[in-house]
Amino acid sequence: MPTFTSHDGTELAYRLTGQGPSLVCLPGGPMGAASYLGDLGGLSTHRRLVLLDPRGTGDSAIPEDPASYRCDRQVADVEALRVHLGLDRIDLLGHSASGNLALLYAARHPDRVGSLTLVAPGIRAVGIDVTEDDWRAAVALRTGEPWYAEGCAAFERTWAGEAAWDEVRDAITPFAYGRWDATAQRHEAVTRTARNRGAADAYYADGAFDPAATTAALAGLTAPVLVLAGEYDGGPTPARAAELAGLFPNAELVVQRGAGHYPWVDDAGAFTRTVAAFLDPDVRTVTVGGVRLAHRVRGAESAPPVVLVHGRGGDSRDWAEIAGRLAATRRVYAVDLRGHGLSDWPGDYSFEAFRDDLRGFLTALGLVGADVVGHSMGGAAAALLAEDEPGLIGRLVLEESPPFFPLDPPRGHVERPEGRLGFDWPVVPATNAQLNDPDPSWRGRFAAISVPTLVVAGGPASEIDQKKLAWMASRIPDARLVTIEAGHLVHNDRPAEFLDALGEFGIA
Q1: pLDDT per residue over 367-414, tens digit each?
Q2: Which of 26, 166, 445, 467 would be a feasible disulfide site paired with 98, CB 3.0-4.6 Å?
Q3: 3-state class of 142 per DSSP?
């Protein structure tokens, strides 16, 4: 493992994993080594993780002065790591107890923080108390679990002063996870061995925190902040995490459903998508109907807006070339629909759900009247929205969008491909079922689309019946049909011709 020397001569170790810009990760415990963080549920596919072993843990040396374990004194270790890495600013992630350390670092060195990610964070540093009532509320959420009764009794013993936390740890540990399954149990075994228990008390020693001063300093932090809490966590609860987020001028709170204190263990995908979206400067998020939708924005803020909606299995990156060209004259919004890319994957999918997400997206971002370009599934969602509320859309482009005739032959069962996917596989059977037997009113109401519409067909190589696409265009009162012989992926395979068609239609 690589090492560096901190301010007092203590040699500290860290582990590197992944590719991309560095994300400095501080483990909790307190005084736990970084091994229990793993690769944070696959976050290493998006960022290079710099996983620090705090002094006296893992491969880092034991300091000569045990008092240097105190949280505020370890701020100098983080700063020494920044200097060692040669970074002007650091993106910093703190989990659990190290949330306090990350907060103190941001308060002391606000100009050195590029972003701050606080995962199930400790909050003593800012004077927010996690109360017995908080824990009782969190415990009550797990009444249906087989280990609930034993765990609840153990909590009662601690609250009554009859037992210390460590004495009942086995019984209460399941409450730290969204699911107490084999994966959680393996993770807990690593977590226990990673901690320097002898140093833990020193971490919170008197004098470690000055909440008033820290809170005042954080109020001036301009860097973006993500506070990510687990739905089932008691320390902090989502309500306490919201209090923390409220201390910053530029903070986002996300409560991960079904998660406890280790959200990357409970649902690695949900955790990774949330944090990766936050850390990517090109990605923004908006919540619509409880679903967080990621999107990419390009072009001048004052330019007329155009919204790009991808097809099934894709995401906003599919429009990179088109968005780059359009951004010269337009404000371009490329959205990840639910179940795709960095948006939430809630598990329930339908063309109606995609339609409603698009409606909410346009409304939430003040894009009423924007031009909308939809490919395939995204075009279908846009068409359904235009049928219902044509006033939300300026001009409409339907690129190889299904015309909602029953498929002949119908699509049967499709096996999920091996490996990690960029979308939630249940999207496929859900939408195939609707394509096999679509609501006949969907095609019956094409005549209700009153906005100017361009239907882009891909020609004979397309999987879409071109005669039915032509029929769809004929049913929309103000529609024109253009064929670009590229197959189904017109904007990808023939981007210049696709852009020419958009330009002739008035979207350029």
Answers
A1: 999 999 999 999 999 999 999 998 999 999 999 999 999 999 999 999
A2: 26
A3: coil
Query: Would you give the DSSP letter of residue 304?
Result: P
Euclidean distance between CA atoms 233 and 264, whole angstroms: 13
| pLDDT at 164 exceeding the cut of 90 | no
Buried b (16+ CB within 10 A) or exposed e, 271-306: bbbbbbbbbbeebebbebeebbbbbbbbbeeeeebb
SS3 40: helix
Whole-angstrom Cα distance, residue 370 to residue 199?
58
- Distances in Å between the Cα of 83 and the Cα atoms of 28, 89, 486, 502 are 22, 9, 52, 49
Whether this model's pTM surpasses 0.85: yes
CA-based R_g, the chain, Å: 26
Q: By the 8 A CB rule, do 328 and 299 touch?
A: yes
Percent of the chain scoring above 90 in pLDDT: 95
Cβ-Cβ contacts under 8 Å for 288 (sequence gap 6 or more): 356, 357, 360, 361, 364
Judging by DSSP bridges, how do beta strands 291-298 and 331-335 pair with one another? antiparallel
Residue 394 has a pLDDT of: 97
Q: Which helix (H) or strand (E) holds 296?
A: strand 291-298
Asked if omega into 440 is within 30° of 0 (cis), the reply is no
pLDDT band at 197 (very low <50, low <70, confident <90, very high): confident
Distance (Å, whole) CA 291 – CA 293: 6
Q: Environment class of residue 220 by beta-carbon count within 10 Å: exposed (0-12), middle (13-18) or buried (19+)?
A: exposed
Angle, CA 225 vertex, CA 221 and CA 3 arms, to 5°: 90
* Whole-number pLDDT of residue 135: 94
Prior bond of 236 cis (ω within 30°): yes
Say how far apart CA 189 and CA 35 lie, in whole Å.
Answer: 11
